Structure formats: structure tokens, C-alpha cells
Predict the structure.
Amino acid sequence: MKIPSQPPQQRFIPREISWLVFNERVLDEAADAQNPLLERLKFLGIFSNNLDEFYRVRVAGLQRLAAERGPEERIMGVSIARLLKDIRERVVRQAERFNQIAQTLFHELDAAGIHIVDEQHLSEEHARYVKEFFHSEVRPRLVPILCHRSRELPGLRDPYLYLAVELLTADSKGPSYAFIEVPTDSLPRFVILPKQGDQDYVILLEDVIRSGIGDIFSLFRPTSVRTWTIKITRDAELEIDGDETDTFVERVEQGLLKRELGAPVRVVYDQSLPEAFLRFLLHKMKLERDEALIPGQRYHNFKDFIRFPNLGRKNLVRTSPEPLVHPRLKGQPSVLDVVASRDILLHYPYHGFDSVIDFLREAAIDPRVTHIRMTVYRVSHGSSVLNALINAARNGKKVTVLVELLARFDEENNLEWVERMRLAGVEVITGVRGLKVHAKLCLVSRKEGRNQVHYAIIGTGNFNEDTARLYTDHALMTARPDLTSEVLRVFEFFRNNYKVSEYRHLVVSPFHPRRAWKRMIRNEIRNARKGKPAYIWAKLNHLVDERIVEQLYDASSAGVKVRLIVRGMNSLVPGIPRQSENIECVSLVGRYLEHSRYLIFCNGNSPRYFITSGDWMGRNFDGRVEVACPILDRELQKELFDYFEIQWADTENSRTWDATLKGHRPARLIDAPVCDSHAEIARYLGDRAEALNLDPKDQAPSGI
């Protein structure tokens, strides 16, 4: 008798599917009644914004690949056609859940005395206010796009919201169609109406437009005007073409102009939109019926709800603790002098970003400082970091800044800073040909006697004071010559792309990073086979490189204990017998975006610790400049170890990764305490700060 063969076990999770699973966890936060009400509304906005970028980047990339190689091309064992179908099915299911949560939150807002009203449910006072606001502020900014069946539809821009308008007149044989762009670039999406008693009222900008829609089209004397919201998401790939005489900056500027009208990849529409209007829209956009349609409710572009006004309701928002000043830096007149004596590891947002600003401000005015170098990927619009560098240049320092112009969705901001810095005398390098510079590096050179001493900041996140309040990240401040000399070599590579240096301490992409990590994983495998302790702990945003995943499977088979905290895309399937039974994996989603990346290798009970700017993805190994830095100070190693232990013990914000993709809470011992890792880390660092401030003996350097 023929024994039926076992079905092949799942070896990889497609990265796009794993990303959608992560975004589902953001929805969990919106549904969690333990979160304050307006925070839950903000999570809906984060979910929406995430999904927009997913379509602009991931889905658009799949569609381009299908057009180039055919829909049956396989990625991680799945055809592109199947993958796109699975994506749409998951997105539609998530949209249904999203709409249910949104309705629940709107009801809870009503109960809390915050009423989101539409144009049909206005009091007399509010109707007068809306009418005046419409005529004075809104109507002058509206220019309807009239659609003719015989002409091309003018491009509907991403990321704007549109009102789709159907007009009927007494002498028309059928409806006419038009579109109105909702001008959220110049007006607030949420219009706050006069308070009535202790009750607050808000109307959305598109409903203000609806209130005056008849006035807009009065020229046509319509007998009926109906409206629905739609939103078009387009391919965000930046086309860098142009004449050979154009500079790279000019080509990026030209590419940005084209992006708003890239190929459409998604149409989100009010599902009450008439079928005939929907067919007309799809025909004009040259989209197939089910290719990119996502039905929705009355309101779209929920990303704007990230900035929903709190109306003074402090009880409905989460108050974050004030960031700590690192205890080694507190009250010290010179950051550079402290860093000269010992390494400092900052943990954002628990530690304040002001220490970085202080580092740069001091370097900008210290007469001994000769040169400041920095990489820029994403910075805030009013960046104190770049203003400090501009002032340093004005003070006669040599300042060199590498600005990555192709930081997706931040290109415009980066172009503006390039212009400002060049006018101030800063030497600006706009990227490296063929590579995206994603490393987070700053290097200050100071003349001390006859010596040139270097001070570095090596981080996991951007030099951005805004995101440092919202993202968890690590930044090492160090004056160790073995590290700073190699940071200097990275900057020399930026100046001379053909000069490839040897790195003994830093792991620098694209210079054989897989070889470095593979060597450390193999070391754990050898130790496990010899019966020695062997483990790998890693916290990453994404883990999708197939070769690294295979090596982790090999480690698991050899008995290496692997613990992974992977926030977003994750192609590894943990807990599969004879494949990954020694691998456990969780994802953390909570009040902060878990952005820090760090790695711990047992190394025969002499652990090696790294922080890194790059995830374990093919693009980070081969197409980007990334830097992973060893943590050598014993005290800081213990901090990272404890940090991981706290996050691994999280009972409130973590979910398991497994083949089911259900996202269960990790199994915990019955008597295990409740642990919110964000609160516990804040407490842990606060306790450490208090202990260091109380014990002057502990101010002595350790391990340097």
C-alpha cells in the first residue's frame, strides 16, 4: 500500500503577507479598550498610513515584477499572481474590521462628548458657521475636474482625497461626473465647530465641501448632486531619469513631480458609489475590475486621524513621561569630555534626544574642533541637528554632510536642507552611486595637543528629534579609537567610492555583511555541537533574507537557542519540527514604534553585542550602506541584555510569530507578572539613573 506523502512544511512566510500580519497588530491596538480613546483613533491613522505606503512600495513593486517577468514568477515559493490575490483578500478583511473599529470609536467619542457630525446633522448655529467657513476659506480653493466620456481623465493625485460628484440636470440624458480634490494641504481636515455647553463638535473638510456642493455647480442648474469619497494610491517608485547634463539633485526633483501621477495600484472607494460611476472611473484609469479595488465607507485617508484634535481632553490621550537626561551626562559642562572617558548608550525615547543636540552644539563652538561629519537620511522639518551643523560651518568648522536624497517620502525635505546647507558653506554629498546610505553616523574631530581625536555617534535610528520621541532606538556615543577610526573610513568611502577599507570591528554593508553574520552564527552552531552554551538573540524591524533564515534554521537544528523580536516583515517560520523547533519569535507593537535593532551572540558565554542601522534583508546587505557597531563596554552590554529580557517578558504588547499567522499572545507561566515592556524599561532606566546619581564610585569608567 502506498503511504501518502507528508505535505511539505512551510519554509518561508512571504514578506508581504507577514507585513500585513504586523499591520493587523496595529489594528489590535486600536481595538484595545485599555488604550486611551484618542490614542486608539491615532492607531487607526497609523494603520491607514502604513497601508498606503505598503501599496505604494510593496504592491507596486510586485506589479512591476509581474509585468516584467510574468504573473507566475515565484517569490519564496509563491507566484506573484497568487500573492497579489492573497494580499487583496487580507486587505479587504482588514478593511471590514477597520470600519467596525472606526464605528465603535465614533460611538465612544459621542459618549465622551466629542461629536463628529456631517453636513446633514448640523444645528442652526453650526450650519451658519459651516456656511461662512465654506465661502470664506474653502470655496476659493476648489476647482472641480469635469469628466468627459470622450477625453482622458486628468490625473487624480496621490495622496489626496477626492469627492466623486454625480450631476443630473433637467435636459441631460444621463449623469455627468466630476471630481473635487479635498484641499488638506492648505486647510485642516478637521474643522472644530463652536462648543455647545460641555460638548465638542467636529466636521470633516469633505463634509464642509458637501454642504456647499450645489453652490459649486450652480452654473449647470443641477436637479441632483450626489457625492462619494475616493482615494487613489499610486506607485511611489522614483524615476531618476533626465538628460546626462542634469545633476542628480535635478533628476530627483523631476522624479518627485512625476511620482504624484505614478501608475495606480489601489482605488479605495465608498461602496455606495453607483456601479456605473465605478465602471466609468476604472475605464478612465485603465484598471481591471478586481485588480486594485478596495471597498470602504464614507471616510478615507484615515492617516489624518493621527492628528485628530484632542480638544483639551487630557483624559483621552496618553501622557508620556518626560525623557531622562542620561545620568552620565546630567549636569556635565562638556559632553565630549564625558564621552572621552567612557561610552554612552542612549535609549530613545526614554533618554532625551537633547544630548545629541548638546553634542553638536558643543562641537560647533569648541575652538579645538576642526571637522564635523554626519549622514542624513530623515530629519525633522525644523531640524535642530542640521541647524547646529549650519552654525558650525558659520563658525569656521569644516562640515561634511552626506544627504541621502532617495529616503522615500522624505526627498523633498532633504532637497530643501541640501540647498540651505550649501548656502551656509557646508560640503554636501548627495548619496553614493548605486547605493542608498542608511547608516546613522556622526563624527567630530578635535585637536587635542598634537593628536587628532575623534568622537562618534553610531545609531539605529535617524538624527531626528521628532521621531526620537516616538520611536525606540539606540545611539552609542564613543571615543574609542578602534571604532572611530573605522567610522572615519566609512566617511572616506563616501568621498571616494572606489576606496574599500577593511573593517575589524564595524560590520559595514555592502562589504560582506552576510559573511560576518554567517561567521557568528556558525560559531554558535559549533559551540552547540560541542555541548557548550549557544544562543542568538536578535531584535529587528524585518527579517526576510532567505540565506540568513536558512542559517538560523541550521542553527536551530544544531541546538542553538534562538530568540527573535521582529516587528514587521518576517519570513522565518518558528517552531517547526526538524526545521526551527529551537527558534522562538515575537513581535512588539505598543505605544512606541519599536525601531531599535540589536543582536546578542552567546559566543561561548563571552557574549558579543551589536547595535545596527540595518535589518536582515537583502537590500540592507547588498544595496545600502549600513553599519553595525559592537558594544564593548561591560556596563552597556548588561543594559542591552536586560533590555532584551524585559522586552521578551512583555505580556501586553507582544504577539507570537508562527505558521498560523494568528498573532497569539506568547504563552507565559501562570505566576509570571504582567509586563508592559515600555513601562518597565522606563522604570529600569529611571532606577539606573537614580543609582548612578547616588553612587559617586559608579562614575568611574568600566570596560574602556
User: Anything to note?
Assistant: The longest helix spans residues 37-69. The chain has 18 helices and 28 strands.
